Amino acid sequence: MTADLIVTNATLVTADAAGTVLHGAALAVEGGRIVRIGSAGEIGTAARDVHDIGGAILMPGLINTHCHAADSLFRGLVEDLALEPWLQTVWKAEGAILTPQTVRLGAALGLAELLLGGVTSVMDMFWYPRQTALAGIELGMRVATGGIFIDGPGVDGGSPEQRIADATAFFDEFGGHELILPGTFPHGTYTVAPESMRTSRDLADRHDALWSTHAAETRAEVADISARYGRSVIRHLDQLGLLDTRTVLAHCVWIDDEEIAILARSGASVAHNPVSNLKLASGIARIPAMLAAGVRVTLGTDGAISGNDLDMWLALRLAATLHKGFTLQADAVTTGQALKMVTQAGADALGVGDRLGSLEPGKLADMIVIDIDRPHAVPMFDPLTHIIYSCTKSDVRDVYVGGRQVVRNRELTGIDLGGVLKEVSALAPSIARSIAG
Amino acid sequence: MTADLIVTNATLVTADAAGTVLHGAALAVEGGRIVRIGSAGEIGTAARDVHDIGGAILMPGLINTHCHAADSLFRGLVEDLALEPWLQTVWKAEGAILTPQTVRLGAALGLAELLLGGVTSVMDMFWYPRQTALAGIELGMRVATGGIFIDGPGVDGGSPEQRIADATAFFDEFGGHELILPGTFPHGTYTVAPESMRTSRDLADRHDALWSTHAAETRAEVADISARYGRSVIRHLDQLGLLDTRTVLAHCVWIDDEEIAILARSGASVAHNPVSNLKLASGIARIPAMLAAGVRVTLGTDGAISGNDLDMWLALRLAATLHKGFTLQADAVTTGQALKMVTQAGADALGVGDRLGSLEPGKLADMIVIDIDRPHAVPMFDPLTHIIYSCTKSDVRDVYVGGRQVVRNRELTGIDLGGVLKEVSALAPSIARSIAG
User: Fold this and answer.
1) A-B interface: how many C-beta pairs under 8 angstroms?
2) Exposed end of chain B (fewer CB within 10 Å): N or C?
3) Same domain, B126 and B229
4) What CATH code is carried by the domain that includes residue A302?
């Protein structure tokens, strides 16, 4: 029996429900799926390609459930402002710069950073989502994205009818693509009226698809929504019938116990974005309380304009440590809970938990190789602890999506990254000018 | 006029008081000191060595004011416990494993990680400090360390008389060494009686030297000291006459407004350790209040047994963002304030602010080169923003201490790192056994 690929001599962190870790292990891939896992001896080397990773960690690719990849064009442009004034300046820059062409460039930049850092699936919300999908396909990574909904003309000047048409066209174009998970993406309750929220949701439902929005990111947003609708953000979404297992809510920083219970009951997922929430002074989400209540917590980088990078390892480290320091509980979030956020819970939130999120026979071979020959990786008593508390994105050596190698020894196989960086640098002066004066 | 070294084609972040940044700049070094700074054209290339860094960032080496480098031997060994129970287990492992030989090995491991990450000066507190000093000298980095003081026999079995003799011997051996800044290091008010605190201080004073201790790290510690002495930790230290410009206090998480005023008045420095404080659930230090009051705030990694690495860039990122999220103020700590913590303020805390902490003519050439050809570094609107919010330790390409290159293209020039990693890995099974059962 000849496999397409065998990765052998691995410290295999499966991220399965039992937390299985295998030393001296190997994994065989056929048709993009994992077909066998076992000791290196059991699995052997009968494959078209055999990659001996020399004892390095092999684990599932990370899943990022909230991002605006193309916003990397504006990294570091607007600093030290709170969300609301920050957003006004960001929208000014976006309005001046963004076209389908520049979004494609920005998406290539952002997705390249993610993929090099071991993120194999990302949920992305941005203008001209078709461009981000195409950039993802070119890189060979999975992207959950689709039509955005916002009141008013927005950066792309779209009318309400055009938005529905665009979102529908996205489903038509990418519905069957192996790398694209289509959905609809209304911006947030403070920028999208209830009717439009429902329209976006109905469209997603008709396609059996994902639906994601920003929710309860700042105190000001909650005050705004409460004043407008007489109920807080989560209650408002619940009232509109928008919370179920297909829902991914980004942030959820300002929610009370009852709202946590609503989220748990509904099966909606939360995308926690600690890097962005700290930088923008939005606050610290009540993650331990959500976990205790049974809410599905996943992890996002948010965009590099708030971040200022797309570093899932930093998000992971913060998810595991920030809440310990904030609640004064040393086990507020455990290593197992943190790992789950970026693996199985992320896959479940994207509706593909049966195919992604762990390394197990039958699942797609989305997986990453982590170098362990760095001074910060030695000694290693527990690979899991190492992943959560010591790893950085620069430790990611190889990345596979569906068994196809898309990063080889820290280099992308799909695109000319140097060319992208040059194009972005050439655009930078116009970007700087866009917010001047 | 021929210099020893010219680094040219630099984006020069001087970290001087005015925040000067020069593009297309160069810097000349003679006798280990910076002698000229200017445009690449002005400085020319008349030097024994000319390093063209291709537009990369050149900035001062980072200064880490609180570390236990050799504790890297125990990285990831004890997890998800609060400080007090954690410390009991740590001390058990240390007691079983530490000898002068293993401390030398652990110090080489920890200091190598720091130096590769751009830390050129570190204040380190650990058993057998002579070994850490020797490891630092071998690597070519600056280490502030010296005799430790603790009640009881400690890991090294020292008597009170022996501790004084050891600390004195350290001053004698390293007093004039260009790379070593000697001092005395009592562990903390909860482990060192007032008389011994004073003894350690008198010894430091006689040598015109540094004095550093842990202070107000946890609520439990403050309660303990208040119960024993009828006053909180900072007031206790103040009452004992231990606070002045030579004092560096690690942590200071649990202090009130009056204690902040005492610190500001005394000129003592605080070593903020956000990575460790979060992981050990110690809490979040009131850094914005300290800065507002004029307290000198510096930055530390703490040890890798709490961290779990020695990543000054993570500490820097957290110093700049954690307090924004915690206080809900988007300018709670500015980029300029954050940069100062790891440069000039760090140098001032170590008593060498006239020689280190910025790149200016007359100062020692402790400097690092930061790659900017990574996806997370493009575009770059402001090098300072980039340093604080996007850089990671893996972006550090070259490191110079006193003009001597100690890291060249991410490789140490002073020691065989592979050999150190192998030795540590060989010791790991004994370390794991030391806390079993």
Assistant:
1) 204
2) C
3) yes
4) 3.20.20.140
Looking up residue B15, the CATH number of its domain turns out to be: 2.30.40.10
pTM exceeds 0.95, yes or no: yes
Please check whether residues A268 and A180 belong to one and the same domain. Answer: yes
Chain A residues 264-293 with a CB less than 8 Å from chain B:
274-275, 277-284
CB contact under 8 Å between B325 and A281, yes or no, is yes
Would you state the torsion angle of the CA atoms of residues A428, A433, A435, A436, taken in this order, to the nearest 10 degrees? Answer: 140
Binned at pLDDT 50, 70 and 90, residue B249 comes out as very high
CB nearest to B390's CB, from A75, A328, A428: A75
* Contact by Cβ (8 Å): A167, A126: no
- Mean pLDDT to the nearest integer, B231-236: 98
**B266 and B369 fall within a common domain:** no
Question: What ipTM does the predicted assembly reach?
Answer: 0.96
Q: State whether residue B187 is helix, strand or coil.
A: coil
At B85, the pLDDT band (50, 70, 90 cuts) reads confident
Last residue in a domain, options B349, B365, B386: B349
Q: Please say whether the dihedral angle defined by the alpha carbons of residues A188, A189, A195 and A201, taken in this order, is positive or negative.
A: positive
Q: Indicate the residue of B328, B379, B432 with minimum beta-carbon distance to A281.
A: B328
How far is B291 from B288, CA to CA, in rounded Å? 5
Element (H, E) at B423: helix B417-434
Q: Which of B331, B349, B367 is the last residue of a domain?
A: B349
Residue B80 has pLDDT above 80, yes or no: no
**pLDDT exceeds cutoff 80 at B413:** yes
Q: Look at residue A420 and tell me if it is in a domain.
A: no
Give residue A99's pLDDT: 97
Count of domains observed in chain A: 2
Residues 6+ apart with CB under 8 A from A258: none
Distance CA(B273)–CA(A54), nearest Å, equals 35
Instruction: Give me the residues of chain A with pLDDT under 50, please.
Output: none
Across the interface, whether the CB atoms of A109 and B378 are under 8 A apart is answered yes
A86 lies in the same domain as A49? no
The tokens 């992320």 sit on which residue? Answer: A346
3-state DSSP percent of chain B in helix, strand and coil, to 5: 45, 25, 35
Q: Distance of CA A367 to CAs A6, A343, A427, B22, Å?
A: 12, 10, 34, 43
- Residue B436 belongs to a domain: no
State the residue for tokens 């684990």: A59
Q: What percent of chain B shows pLDDT beyond 90? A: 93
Cα diameter, chain A: 67
What is the predicted pLDDT for the residue at A147?
Answer: 97
Instruction: Answer for the pair B4, B45: CB distance below 8 angstroms, yes or no.
Output: no
Q: How confident is the model at residue B431 (pLDDT cuts 50, 70, 90)?
A: very high
| B159 and B66 housed in the same domain | yes
- Residue A424 touches chain B, beta carbons under 8 Å: yes
Is the residue at B431 inside a domain? no
User: Tens digit of pLDDT for each residue in B24-52?
Assistant: 999 999 999 999 999 999 999 999 999 99
Same domain, yes or no, for A51 and A71?
A: no
Task: Please report which confidence band the pLDDT of residue B437 belongs to, taking 50, 70 and 90 as the band edges.
Answer: low
Q: Which residue segment(s) compose the domain that B392 sits in?
A: 3-61+355-412
Contact at 8 Å (CB) between A148 and A129?
yes
Residues B29 and B92 in one domain: no
Chain B CA closest to residue A418: B373
Residue B435 lies in a domain: no
Q: Are B186 and B150 in contact (CB under 8 A)?
A: yes
> By CA distance, what is B113's nearest residue in A?
A375
Residue B239: pLDDT over 70: yes
pLDDT score recorded for residue A88? 87
Residue labelled with tokens 């809970």: A337
Nearest to A112 among B375, B394, B421 (CB): B375
Each residue's pLDDT tens digit, B322-337: 999 999 999 999 999 9
Q: Are residues B78 and B36 in the same domain?
A: no
Residue B368, pLDDT score: 98
